[in-house]
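Exercise 7.
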Amino acid sequence: MIKIGIIGATGYAGAQLVWILHNHPKADIKFLCSNSYAGESYSDIYKNFSGHMYINCVSMEEAYSQLDAIDVLFLAMPHGKSFDISKAAVAKGKKVIDLGADFRLKDITEYEEWYKVTHQAVDLLKEAVYGLPELNREKIKGAGLVANPGCYPTASILALAPLLKNDIIDTSSIIIDAKSGVTGAGRSAVTNNLYCECNDSIKAYAITTHRHTPEIEQVLSGVSGKDITLTFTPHLTPMSRGILSVCYGKLNDEYSESTLLQLYRDFYKEEYFVKILDAPPETRYTKGSNMCHISLRVDKRTNRVIVVSAIDNLIKGAAGQAVQNMNILFGLNENTGINFPAMVP
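Solution. The predicted structure, written as tokens, is:
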């Protein structure tokens, strides 16, 4: 059994992680940390666990004292909060999977510019591995610290990687228009995320300033071998979970839809969690699963390709992908504990 600690267990991503690991055949949760709910029963905070889980949340101080009892530490905290606990866990030889943003960007200056936080674990950043298994599996296998990708980047990178790897589109022409469910904004009580502010409406936010922009550019630049600067606009939609990422690019030559769809099927032919569809994907068919559904259309009039990608932001975009990374780290079948389809309706 893999002994596990989770810090940030009561946020939406943390709660999804607890749910998956509670049902994982090789996982043994040793502690759940939440400073806001320290001492409280987890099943009182999330009553869906009533009768299933008998564990009280611990404080961060208590979490430090329990690091010796675990094999892997999951961090599901806001940016700027992972530095010290990551150092402590890695020093003890524990695996760390960070669902936050602190180890995703390799350029420290870029991280500090976008996140407005001084990076306090530069040595760890050098050894952190970006945890997108479909592109980085071999490096993940030997990692001590995995930087779990963001939700928007996961959907967008998987959508665009085959085109950029094969030099199919003009790298200066990329536009990403993405929509997310409200859980992507976290569980904190913020006015803009209240029900009355989000229901029966859709809004663009963080236009030109969203912090996932440099993450997407960094990874896609690595895939293409060229420096990429792109336009990324996120939107908040009145649904609990899900991401639909619509990506546009100017084709370098003339291609048919069938040719590009076959390119995608070849690129992802060994990937269990990526499915290439003929019809445009919908978020409801990935909701509650670790799947990523992708399809595309070629606009011959403008010689552009439009790629549409759908994921569940809390699973493939967060907790499910974190467990996928854990499975790789510990030599398990990659879909162990996350081999379930979406629940419809």
